[in-house]
Structure to design on (78 residues):
């Protein structure tokens, strides 16, 4: 249900803000500047959360183990 309602919530939140007295209200690109800053902040936060997740550390350790195994693997009959 959240996946369905989240885009509508974001859009209504962006266009429904009371912006009186805020910076960039008087400029033509103010809305787009604020939107771009918001997107950058969200992307940075998502990246930092992904890096801190236990799944990311498991993937990193598995990748390191595979890389180490590939370097020590011998080719040919043993």
């Amino acid at each position: 249900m959240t996946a369905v309602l989240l885009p509508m919530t974001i859009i209504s939140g962006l266009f429904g803000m009371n912006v009186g007295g805020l910076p960039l209200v008087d400029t033509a690109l103010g809305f787009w500047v604020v939107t771009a800053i918001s997107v950058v902040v969200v992307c940075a936060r998502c990246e930092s959360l992904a890096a801190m997740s236990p799944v990311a550390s498991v993937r990193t350790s598995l990748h390191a183990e595979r890389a180490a195994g590939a370097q020590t693997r011998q080719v040919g009959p043993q």
About this structure: Residues 30-52 form the longest helix (23 residues). The chain is about 70% helix and 0% strand. The two ends are 57 Å apart (CA to CA). Residues 14 and 47 are 22 Å apart (CA to CA).
